[in-house]
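$ fold --in a.seq
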Amino acid sequence: MNGPYRRQIGFTLIELLVVIAILSIIAAILFPVFATAREKARQATCASNLRQLGLAFQQYSQDYDETLPSSNSGFAGWAGPLYCYVKSAGAFACPDDQTVQQPRIVSGVTYVLQPVSYAYNENISYTPSSELGVGGTISQFTSPPKTVLLYEVTANLNPSQANPCAYNVADLSTPGEAGGMSNGTNFCFSPVGNGVWATNRGDIYRPLQQATGYTGGVQQKQWFGSSTFAGPDGRHCNGSNYLLSDGHVKWLRGATVSTGYFYNSGPDIFSWTVTTANTAEDEFTYMSPEAAGTAAPGWTVTFSPV
């Protein structure tokens, strides 16, 4: 009809507003779902990385008479010796960890230190002579499925901690992690920790941060004005991934994990005071608790091998 009563084809303003409102509601519902799905994918990739590293630990122990890698006395790392079994630097990095590669010059040689998003349980990584572990051998584990082997950490980017060793990076190009040797100021190796604190063995005053959320009754542990935790919740959906000593991986909330030095190590044996020539902040006393034994009820896993 071509007369004055011809119907106009199109949407009215009210109809358009209704459609936009409906689409906005749908988007508000779906976007969090998509974000959760992406995070679950990153969590799954992280778990896959840990499984690969678990296999590398097993292969290493088979090659070295059931002995695990050591990081004794702060002059060694665990990631370098395992790299030859993994052949991928990406397996050492969680996709949610924002740490990037760090160049480091040692004795005129430039090394590229790769992100290592996981810390080795210090109660396992030390040798029998150090008092801090059970020898790092598979046979000395009371319950491998309940003992943490690796857990998640990240860089300590607190501006007051500006230091090359505030990063969770390591030289994966050599078994001895040669790029972590002193560059005139400090050492820097793949991370170790006991769930209360973590460090790359480079500088005891510049700790890394744990990405597990607060663990086993430990809320905040201050180390030179910086928390040893990246936040109250874990890296992945309020929890984090753990590699257990039998090779399997579990996602856990921090509150279900018992942290500290190995069971029956003595309540005061690891308390010490450090004083330096810097500021009053550099004088402190630090002590870690004992982790629960593997037979203790109420804990899903523990940092104690016994």
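$ fold --in b.seq
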Amino acid sequence: MPFHDRPVFPRGFRCASRNVGLKPTAKDLALFVSDVDAAAAAVFTRNKFPGAPVLLGRETIKGGTLRAIFANSKVSNVATGAVGLENARRMAALERTAFLTRELIDLLVELQASDDVTLTDTVRDRLAHAIRESADLIATPLGDPGASDRFRGASEALAEYQSALGTPTAGRRTELAAGAAVELCLRRIIDVTRPFV
């Protein structure tokens, strides 16, 4: 296969790349993704001064599974200290948020397709509000003084959605399952941001 041909990936793996400004025009950031958690191993530099992504990678790989990796070119990410490690952790959290967002979209499509009578206009409005608040939280820049208020706002909006959804009772359990799955997914998205607030 010539070097510039489109790569062929095993079933269940994908890759996306784009220019994010590290290089003038060439693609400089790639995301490699597995559709499911995959067994993983890695080899790291033995350099005495590894960059923050290497330090974080060594921690992450101990679990033996990965779902995705980011790779950038041009910037070595070394000698960045605590800020670099914080940025690497935030990048990992954003990666996790991307997966959870995809899961949320799938759940919302499933919820929309169902004829669930528990999804009153109030429930739908509270869900839309919780999603907006969560999106605002995710978009919060690192170090923003309003981050804790956004976290609180997203958590409160999610609690309002959960309250509007109601409590499962005999006979209503299956009707609430999709709505509860959406609530759990949103909770996981909010929780990913917790270390950065």
